[in-house]
Amino acid sequence: MEKALIAGATGATGKKIINLLKESPYIEPIAMIRKEDQKSIFEDQKVQWIMGDLAQDLSHICENMDKVIFAAGSGGTNVVEVDQEGAKRLIDASVSNNIKKFIMLSSMGADQPEEMEELHDYMVAKHHADIYLRNSGLNYTIVRPGALTNDSGTQHIQLSHKLKEQGSISRADVAHVLTKVLQDDTANKETFEIVTGDTLIGKALETMSTLEM
């Protein structure tokens, strides 16, 4: 089995990613945790964990890993150090360890942060992190959802390189998309936006190659 490091594993979306990958016969999730008292969350689920802090040295964190999902966030309190520079540290560690694929959970608006009055600093941080990943030489997928909700997942989305309107999407459906694109042949070196829609997630990802830029 391949091992996928999940940065942000203790967050609302990260926990859903872990739960999905626990059922995978192909990929074992490895939860990245920052505090000792977070160990029990994953030990109780029989999920492997590794200590790492996005604001600190991460040179060790990708050893023996195959893929990475960055689903971490500072919650708006330290966006440059965590959402931007923390992402860059993890990207650098991934490059050093020849990670096969790096999945970035970004956000709608990260391509044009100057137009986003709300969460402007966060969007700027995500913008720089996305560019850094694209220029890293890694195989990557950058997923930019609309506003995240805690609604139940529908397994149906609207997907485009650039959606015409803002929208929302459940964390459950975002987690499904992130785990789907871990597959070697899915959305390689692609950046796309997603909101709730009418197309099954798998079908939406299959049709990516036919989308206009």
Summarize the structure.
The protein is of the alpha/beta class and 213 residues long.
Could you characterize what this model shows?
The protein is an alpha/beta fold. The chain has a single domain (2-210), classed as NAD(P)-binding Rossmann-like Domain (Rossmann fold). It is 31% helix and 24% strand. It has a nine-stranded mixed β-sheet with strand order 3-2-1-4-5-6-10-8-11, sandwiched between helices. The chain has a two-stranded parallel sheet with strand order 7-9. Helix 3 (79-96) packs parallel to helix 4 (120-134). The protein starts with a strand and ends in a 7-residue tail after the last helix.
Task: Write the topology of this structure.
Blueprint: E1 2-7, H1 12-22, E2 27-33, H2 39-43, E3 48-51, E4 67-70, H3 79-96, E5 101-105, H4 120-134, E6 140-145, E7 147-149, E8 156-160, E9 168-170, H5 171-180, E10 190-196, E11 199-200, H6 201-206
Gap between N and C termini: 34 Å
- Spell out the CATH superfamily: NAD(P)-binding Rossmann-like Domain
Oligomer: single chain
Mind describing the biggest β-sheet?
9 strands, mixed
